[in-house]
Structures are given as structure tokens and as C-alpha cells.
Amino acid sequence: MHIFRFFLVILFFSIQTQSQSKKYKIHTVAFYNFENLYDTVDDAFTNDDEWTPNGAQHWTIEKYQQKLKNLAKAISEIGTPENSNAPTLIGAAEVENRNVLEDLIKEPKLQPLDLGIIHFDSPDKRGIDVALLYQKKYFRPTSYSNIPLIIYKKEISKKEEETEVLDDEIEVKKENKNRVFTRDQLLVSGFLENEEIHIIVNHWPSRSGGEKATSLFREAAGKLNRKIIDSLQRINPQAKVLTMGDFNDGPFNKSIKAGLGAKGIKTEVSEFDVFNPFEELANKGLGTIAYRDSWNIFDQIIMTASFVKTDFLTFNFWKASIFNKPYLIQNSGAYKGYPLRNTLSEAGFSDHLPVYVYLIKEF
Fold it and tell me: What digits encode the pLDDT tens for the residues 53-86?
């Protein structure tokens, strides 16, 4: 019995020693809705008039430059302290054009990262797009494309035609239907170090006009997302796909649960499923956006089952979080406790909080 106990003690310390000696590479993957990252130049092809010096937002070059500094600070710190390096991959939404991204990556907080940009102009009426920023040192893109979401409003009443058009739609008569012009879904494939991964960056149709009235648009976006993932898995059943974005729906909405088919419990995720770690955070009452004193997680990073493994022989999911440093939050006024967004008097950060996941690999 004494000998048996002795070997148990030896085995315990051996396991502890092996665990302590393990080392991991770590990459942070983030998504951030930049909230109206416009320059101050009036673009004749988009509805950006309010984001000019003479527009409703009184958007000056000083405010624009402060906004860039604010975003750069936040981006450079996402994922710390677990990972001292800034995010390797940053999905972005609500950017006006490539120029604002070029200005952003030149900020002193981001310039040392040597960030690359992948961006396409989308048909969105306000001229806001999605994009991917990446550290060239760690990620090498091999292909990228913008995939349009083709959706229509079936009927527009005369009364509706006389009112203001919703945030992200232009009404176009076509076969007695009206197309809703929204953001494209950006698909990027490449190598994270020496491992192939795929990233989809999203900004799904807004809730302007009511959550229920616009739900079908986001459900269609979820189905398109699922179709993209399925096509990648047909080529490689073990394809590693991250789909991230401002989905304008939470983890439990139909667009996420049915359209995309995301599951929030690891043990229920089978080979071709997708896993949403932000469902657990939603269950804890956390959020990325606040409305009428209620929080929801519209910003999420969802992944294929190939990222959810018990070993870390390749880059796999470790944990997810919401980046909510105090400087991102209003500390006074009617919106105390809400994300610190733009106002008429100052440039804030965003009305959304960034989200991120860690991918780790044993070496």
C-alpha cells in the first residue's frame, strides 16, 4: 500500500511538471465595429453628407483624427494581458473606404504592427463596408472575395415610400420587388503561420424598421454564411473557418441558431457544426451593445468544429472574451455605463465593444 501511494505521488508530480513545462504560441483574433469611421470628404456616390464639416455631425478633421487615435489605442490593447501582442487578425465594420483604413494603420499605436488591409466597396447606401486587417508577420492571405447578400423587400406601401429609407437599403424596382442593398460578406483565405484558415467578416442587415420586420434579412445572411462554410468544408472537411462580425442579432436569434446553425455547447458540436463561444457570455448577462439599458451581444466570433479540439497540436480555440476597458465606457451623463460613442461635441470610440478569441498551439 505504501509503495502504491508512493507511485501515485510520483505520477501526480510528473503530470504537474509536464503541464508546467508546456509552452504555447498564441494569436488574438478580434472583431470591432468602428461606428461611422468616415473621413471628412463628401463622396457624391454615398449618403455621407452628415459626416462632413458642414453636415449634421459637424465632422471635422480634428474629430476624425481623434477617432483614429481612439480606435488605434483600443485595437493595440485587445487581448492583453494574456497575449502581449496586439491582435493578429482584426475584422472591422462601418468603414467608409480604404483611405480611412490606411490612415488608421499609420497611427503610432498601430504602425509597428505592419498591418495589411483587405477591403472591398460594398453597395450599402451609407457607403459603409467591412474589412480585414492583419499582421503581415503572422498571416499571409492567398485569396479573398466579396460575396453579395441578395435580398428583397416584397412589398413597399405608398406610405413607406414617402418616409425616410431605412439605414441600409435603397429601394429598386425589379420584378415588383425591392432589393435591400446591404454589406457584402468578405471571405479571406490564407495561412496563419503555416496553417490554412478562412475568415468571413460580416455586418448583417440592421434592425431599423423593427427587429421582427427585418429578421428575415438577417436569417438570409445567416444562410449565406452557412453556404460559404459548407462550400469550404466540401473542399476540405477539416477546413478551419472563423466567421465574425456585427450580426445585429444575438447568439439566440434565429439568424444565428437556425440560419447559421451555431451551437453554444462544445460537447454538442459535431464534425460539420459551428460553435459560438459567445452564447456562454450572453448567458452570463454580458454584452457588446446597449439599448434602453439592456445589453446584447451582436458582435461575435463563431468557428467550425475543426477549431474546437481537446489537443493543441495545431492552432485551436482557447477562450473568448469582450474587451471592455473602462476608457471604452461612458462615465457620466444619461448614457453612463454605455459604450463611449461619437457625439456632436467629441469623437468617441464606438457604440460597440470589441470581441476577441485566442487561438493557441503547443510547441
Answer: 999 999 999 999 999 999 999 999 999 999 999 9
d(CA 255, CA 265): 18
- Please report the pLDDT score of residue 170 as a whole number: 42
Q: Where are the beta strands (DSSP E) in the chain?
A: 24-37, 89-95, 115-119, 129-135, 139-147, 152-153, 173-174, 177-179, 185-192, 195-203, 241-246, 262-263, 274-275, 289-291, 294-296, 299-304, 316-322, 355-362
State the residue for C-alpha cell 466597396.
121
Q: Which of 104-108, 323-327, 333-337, 351-355 has the lowest mean pLDDT?
A: 333-337
Cell numbers that stand for 197 in this block: 484558415
**Which residue bears the cell 481623434?**
66
Residue ranges of E strands in 127-273: 129-135, 139-147, 152-153, 173-174, 177-179, 185-192, 195-203, 241-246, 262-263
The answer, as to whether pTM is greater than 0.85, is yes
Rg for the chain, CA atoms, rounded:
22
Residues listed for the chain: 363
